[in-house]
């Protein structure tokens, strides 16, 4: 077995034996050395990664899934309160291909050790649209907005017909609701963008946003008009007053005329620049940079530091930032996941060389290991392609994911990985 396979695969029985202790923060051995942006300089800000189960949903001894589907699209943020930090997470059940149930919220007052029973977000369920067509909400990302002391939960609309995903989707757009410090939600609203290039769809679903010093938001959009099939990406600067989000400026456009084009862009601000990572459908992911968050460099395919490509399959990537280094979280092709759908297990992270805009191969770690056999029994490997990254404390960041086993009744655990930093994140 190759080193690549040893690092990314974990026998299912061993994982389940370990998982009984995950809630207590069982430690997995850290991966290999990590270099800084100056080649050869050893500087690894990551102390360790531990993993725990938020909501168990896999069949195992003493637990049988309830048939209601796994908690999916698990994305968290942390809210400061007078009683201490409050973990806040949005989740929704999945019981079919792109078939999502109402968006719910859950909280943790002990930094992610335990979570409350998920409760629906008002307005983020199913609503009649036209005849037998219903409109729902999915791909929601909650982020705390300090200037207004609110949590802004933003995703996009999705349409269903007679209980299944409607393959001929009407026009789609971002929707959002804000939760104030008293726990009150604003009515579901549409983020309006009048650009005709987004006449068929414009969306920021699954994307990381940036809050600027003046309280404005930078949001990355993927969009397409009715007369083309490939999506483009851009960024927009928005004002937010705690209730309403309004677009003020639109940035430059990036495009890739292959299949569906560029999808699910995520943003981060690091070391004075803005970074965008982008999903694509040509077995690559892409990266672009900007000085102001609006005017972007041409996108560059993600590569390793030796120039070889990061081979990934139409799956989102997200940023993990620390004041001492920038990291990318992603899935990729490996020896032991060759037949797993879109190589969506295991989940990796690696450090970014910000000078060369590439990944440092020696810094790669497994965030969540592949459980099962990705070659002989790939249909029984849990998919982990929809995940999120957030900062919990200056010494800890979180990566959350909802497993998806579409061939096993859409069961799966909701998982939390804690990235513990050696030095506080400034």
Can you tell me about this structure?
The protein has 426 residues and is mainly beta. It has three domains: 177 residues, no CATH class; 125 residues; 79 residues, no CATH class. The strands form seven sheets. Strands 9, 10, 11, 12, 13 and 14 form a six-stranded antiparallel beta sheet that branches. Strands 15, 16, 17, 18, 19 and 20 form a six-stranded antiparallel beta sheet that branches. Strands 2-3-33-32-31 form a five-stranded antiparallel beta sheet, with no helix packed on it. The longest helix is centred in the N-terminal third of the chain and has 8 residues. It starts with a helix and ends in a 5-residue tail after the last strand.
Strand content: 35-45%
Main pleated sheet? 6 strands, antiparallel
Mean pLDDT: 91
- What is the end-to-end distance? 40 Å
Structural class: mainly beta
Q: What count of helical segments does DSSP give?
A: 2
General shape = globular
Number of domains: 3
Low-confidence stretches: 1-39
Radius of gyration: 20 Å
Helix content, binned percent: under 10%
Which assembly state applies to the chains in this document? single chain
What order do the helices and strands come in, and which of them pair?
Layout: H1 3-8, E1 9-10, H2 12-19, E2 27-28, E3 46-55, E4 70-79, E5 86-96, E6 99-100, E7 104-108, E8 119-120, E9 127-130, E10 133-145, E11 150-161, E12 164-165, E13 174-179, E14 189-190, E15 201-203, E16 210-211, E17 217-224, E18 232-240, E19 245-250, E20 254-255, E21 262-270, E22 273-280, E23 285-290, E24 300-301, E25 318-322, E26 325-330, E27 347-353, E28 358-359, E29 365-368, E30 370-371, E31 387-393, E32 396-402, E33 414-421
Parallel strand pairs: 1-30
Antiparallel strand pairs: 2-3, 3-33, 4-5, 5-6, 5-7, 7-8, 9-10, 10-11, 11-12, 11-13, 13-14, 15-17, 16-17, 17-18, 18-19, 18-20, 21-22, 22-23, 23-24, 25-26, 26-27, 27-28, 27-29, 31-32, 32-33
């Amino acid at each position: 077995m190759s080193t690549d396979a040893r690092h990314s695969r974990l026998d299912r029985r061993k994982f389940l034996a370990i998982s009984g202790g995950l809630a207590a923060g069982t430690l997995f051995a850290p991966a290999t050395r990590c270099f800084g942006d100056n080649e050869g300089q050893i500087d690894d800000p990551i102390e360790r990664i531990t993993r725990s189960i938020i909501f168990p949903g896999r069949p195992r001894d003493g637990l049988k899934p309830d048939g209601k589907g796994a908690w999916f699209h698990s994305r968290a943020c942390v809210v400061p309160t007078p009683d201490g930090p409050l973990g806040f997470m949005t989740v929704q059940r999945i019981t079919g291909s792109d078939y999502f149930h109402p968006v719910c919220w859950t909280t943790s007052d002990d930094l992610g050790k335990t979570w409350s029973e998920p409760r629906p977000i008002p307005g983020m369920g199913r609503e009649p649209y036209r005849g037998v067509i219903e409109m729902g909400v999915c791909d929601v990302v909650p982020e705390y907005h300090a200037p207004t002391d609110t949590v802004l939960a933003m995703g996009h609309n999705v349409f269903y017909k007679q209980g299944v995903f409607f393959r001929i989707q009407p026009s789609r757009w971002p929707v959002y609701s804000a939760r104030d410090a008293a726990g009150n939600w604003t009515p579901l609203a549409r983020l309006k963008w009048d650009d005709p290039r987004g006449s068929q769809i414009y969306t920021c679903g699954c994307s990381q946003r940036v809050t600027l010093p003046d309280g404005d938001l930078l949001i990355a959009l993927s969009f397409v008009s009715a007369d083309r099939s490939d999506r483009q990406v851009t960024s927009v600067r928005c004002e937010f007053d705690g209730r309403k989000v309004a677009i003020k400026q639109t940035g430059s456009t990036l495009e890739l005329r292959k299949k569906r084009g560029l999808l699910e862009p995520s943003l981060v601000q690091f070391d004075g620049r803005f970074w965008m990572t982008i999903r694509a459908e040509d077995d690559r992911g892409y990266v672009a940079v900007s000085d102001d968050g609006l005017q972007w460099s041409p996108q560059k395919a993600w590569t390793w530091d030796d120039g070889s490509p990061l081979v990934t399959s139409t799956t989102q990537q997200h940023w993990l930032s620390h004041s001492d280094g920038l990291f990318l979280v992603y899935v990729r092709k490996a020896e032991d996941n060759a037949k797993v759908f879109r190589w969506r297990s295991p989940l990796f992270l690696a450090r970014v060389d910000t000078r060369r805009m590439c990944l440092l191969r020696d810094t790669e770690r497994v965030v969540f290991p592949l459980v099962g056999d990705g070659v002989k029994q790939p249909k029984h490997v849990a998919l982990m392609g929809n995940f999120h990254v957030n900062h919990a404390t200056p010494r800890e960041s979180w990566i959350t994911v909802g497993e998806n086993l579409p061939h096993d009744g859409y069961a799966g655990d909701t998982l939390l990985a804690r990235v513990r930093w050696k030095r506080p994140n400034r």
